[in-house]
Specification:
four-stranded antiparallel beta sheet, 9 strands, 123 residues, five-stranded antiparallel beta sheet
Length: 123
């Protein structure tokens, strides 16, 4: 026998081949992300090679156009965000061996040298 649903937990992040990154409200709430913030991925060194999603710049520090800039999808107060970065999406897709899209669930918030970040599970 096999399960029809398999893993029933919804993904927290979706990386698309065209560079779109969908960020669910759980992640934006945990990292206190808002429209205008810039995201990045940091790779932990050592045995475990954990990947962290974190806010590289906050909206008040951002001037001009940036790769990884978040914008609200469902109106100005929405916590569902979308960012664009081909470099980040190519990194994740290569790391996971995917071609079109990668759905990633995230772990808990931890402190990193860059500030608080969410551990990305499965990279």
């Amino acid at each position: 026998m096999r399960s029809i649903l398999g893993n029933s937990r919804k993904s927290d992040l979706t990386f698309w081949r065209d560079g779109h990154i969908d960020i669910r409200s759980r992640v934006s709430r945990e990292l206190q992300l808002k429209a205008g913030d810039v995201i990045d991925i940091a790779i932990g060194e050592g045995f475990d090679h954990e990947c962290y999603l974190y806010a590289r710049k906050r909206g008040t520090q951002t001037t001009g156009r940036h790769e990884g800039l978040c914008r609200a999808v469902n109106g100005p107060g929405s916590r569902y965000l979308r960012a664009n970065s081909r470099q980040l999406t190519q990194f994740v897709l290569q790391r996971l061996g995917e071609k079109e899209q990668a759905k990633v669930t995230c772990g808990e918030v931890r402190d990193t040298p860059f500030g608080p970040g969410i551990v990305m599970i499965g990279l």
